[in-house]
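Quick one: structure tokens for this chain, please?
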Amino acid sequence: MNRNQPTNPFSSVPRVEPIEGVDVEILLDSIGSNRSGFLFESGLDVSGTGRWHLAGIDPIGSFEATRDHWSLEDHHGEQFSGEGDPLEALERWWSGWSRPRHLDGSASNECVSQFPFVGGAVGWIGYEAADVFLGLPPRQVPQGPVAQLLEGVPEMSWQLYDEVVVIDAIDGRCWFLHHERDGWQDRRWWLARDRHQDSIPCRARIEDASLNDEDYLAAVEQIRHRIGIGDVYEVNLARGLLLDGVPPARDLHRLWRAAQPVPYGAFIQGDPFSVVSASPELFLRRRGDRIVTRPIKGTVPRHGDERLDTDAARRLLQDEKERAELAMIVDLERNDLGRICQPGSVEVKVAAEVESYASVLHTVATIEGRLRANPSPAEILRATFPGGSITGAPKVAAMEQIRQLEPWPRSVYTGSLGWIAPCGDLELSIAIRTALVRGQRALIPFGGAVTWDSNPSSERAELTHKARAMFEALGI
């Protein structure tokens, strides 16, 4: 333990060092295969969501939790563990390095205030992490390759970074943000990097699936039956796919960023597992007392022809089934935000708009609210997690159906990943189009909403549309 370091690594306003000649490829190359690190890449600006690239390596602390057991390493290198509510433990960890908002420079340092993230926690909360605080029983993992991949993977994993590199995706300017920890002058890690070699064409294969075609179609019919008797209104059903022969996580991110540019591309490298995500969906963005969620519901394939795509977007907006799916989730998200927002402040800013991606068109809504009583990140997660777009409605009833129908845990998939700042600001995506990578294997599920009007074959085809660009990049 270094007693010369401050009690809180974020006790000072960050120092901003402009740097030249650094781009996303350099940052990606500099996260070597034997180092913990992350790259959040906004490769597509959709509705103002894609401006910043963020990167860091060698975290100074960590927090992990599985079920009701948690462990952490603080920024002095001391390790602690215990039992109990994982969100309460996360809040205690966060409070050890949090700091008042006014110290973040929003008023005193205009240069710092332009950046969304100047250090803090980076990581994920997996889908099954909600089981504890929603009162659902533990999930059993079937024996076999998927159990081997998931062994030791936590349900929450956060790493603490006090030094980050930030790139403005609009004009290419780049900065090193740090808090003057001893030796910062020698930690310009992006200067020492592996030179990227052209990748050998990937030939991954699907090794196993949680549901075969027959089982998936039967599950859709079971959900329609449950809707018919009034148990649920909508359920998001996912099909887990276990792939073998996938490239290292860094190369997988490189393949996906080329095949499917998105606002929330992410590469989080750990040992022995890493996460790669090409998510188009914002779960939560908090800035000050404002909070925003942008659920996606409604998907059709793109045609690659502007006229045909315009026509498809128009039909998507007019499709009663797709609009009903989105409307139900908008109502759910309004209720979730209402638990932590000032009465009457939650508004649907956009009821439905179409966004265009490499292989699909999505319908998206925007809901905003004004927070009350300055809730902590853990309190926000307790009120809202997991996102309604990947559960269904009512949320807990839909999750119970998911538990009955999906044989495999989802793990990181349909959880959330992103960052949490010392002041409590945060930005979390929904972990869809997401791979949990371990060695040459990866768990890559895909899902979609099932309603009373769903056609089982059409639902199965929608999963194919969502997976197309990602799997073609892997040679599938």
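The CA atoms of residues 406 and 443 lie 14 Å apart.
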